[in-house]
Design goal:
By secondary structure, this protein is α/β, with parallel strands linked by helices. Helix 1 crosses helix 3, helix 6 runs parallel beside helix 8 and helix 7 runs antiparallel to helix 8. Helices cover about 40% and strands about 25% of the residues.
Length: about 300
């Protein structure tokens, strides 16, 4: 019997929000991932990086303020740093957990670039907030550089970057080769490093890519059997946050699209996950999507928890 190929997408709760939180969180995450390996799943893992890339961006900006000779790190470099930093913690914790169970399996992180369209509408209406709060003077400097900022009354200003749609995963063949060799692969962290193709060169873009969007694409490109999205809630809810809130144990592709059209899912939280599920299932009609939390993943893969989305 062949292994079940899955992409597992890890949310913020699986990683924590600070260096020390991440150190502790990945140990718990590693146990959940190792459970899947023991159940004969072949794992390709992707993850969020919002708090991490924001922390790195703040640190590099402050370094430039203190030491004038340093050059501020562009967003693409901050994204690359976060991929290495998060991947390092996940792969070491998972490797240790697997070895403690008598499983000798390589776990590797691939620094992943993802091409985006320079004319994507997202570049004209940036929405992703990053970095520290700035003074009005610092915000004006950012504006002069061509960057976007958003004002938070009483707090200051913060930089805003675009979230364009992913086009191609540059290192997909390397990821596929490792996955087909039954190795655990960590790839496309934080949505991947957004790059723009310029003839034979790849130029980093001042942007971030939605983690859920790249998870759906990665699962489709690898022709996976299932996409597992781990998030903060145990399942998808209808009328979430209201007195009519009700869990959705399962839905098909048509129902998912209907819920989207009804505005059932909040932008920036559940909506990107459902959209990723739709994109993946339209490309891999034999697949399925499971949305749940880290706490319930063991029950969810047995059909006892979470939300299952099928074609």
């Amino acid at each position: 019997m062949s292994k079940k190929k899955v992409v597992v997408s890890l949310g913020h709760d699986a990683l924590g929000y600070t260096t020390t939180e991440q150190w502790d969180a990945v140990k718990i995450t590693a146990r959940a991932l190792a459970d899947l390996v023991e159940e004969d799943y072949q794992l390709t893992i992707t993850h969020s990086n919002g708090p991490q890339v924001s922390m790195i961006h703040k640190a590099m900006t402050e370094l430039r303020r203190v030491y004038i000779d340093y050059t501020p790190a562009p967003m693409c470099v901050c994204s690359a740093m976060s991929q290495g930093y998060v991947g390092y913690d996940i792969q070491n914790s998972l490797r240790a957990e697997l070895l403690s169970r008598g499983i000798s399996k390589p776990v590797s992180t691939i620094l992943t670039q993802v091409t985006v369209d320079p004319y994507d509408e997202a570049f004209y209406e940036p929405t992703k907030v990053i970095g520290r709060y700035m003074s009005k003077e610092d915000a004006e400097i950012e504006i002069k550089k061509g960057n976007y900022v958003k004002e938070y009354p009483g707090k200051g200003f913060r930089r805003v970057v675009a979230a364009p749609k992913p086009i191609d995963i540059v290192e997909i063949e390397a990821i596929r080769t490792l996955a087909e060799a039954d190795q655990v692969v960590i790839a496309c962290g934080g949505g991947g490093i957004p790059v723009i193709e310029q003839q034979h060169a790849l130029k980093g873009a001042s942007a971030v890519i939605e983690k859920d969007a790249i998870a759906g694409k990665l699962a489709a490109d690898l022709n996976c059997d299932e996409l597992i999205i781990l998030t903060a809630v145990d399942c998808v809810y209808k009328d979430f946050g209201s007195l009519r809130q009700a869990p959705i144990a399962s839905m098909n592709l048509q129902e998912a699209k209907q819920y989207i059209s009804e505005g059932q899912f909040e932008a920036g939280t559940m909506l990107p996950k459902i959209e990723a599920a739709v994109d993946y299932l339209e490309k891999v009609p034999r697949g399925s999507v499971l949305i749940t939390s880290m706490k319930y993943i063991k029950d969810a893969v047995k059909g006892k928890a979470g939300t299952l989305i099928i074609p």
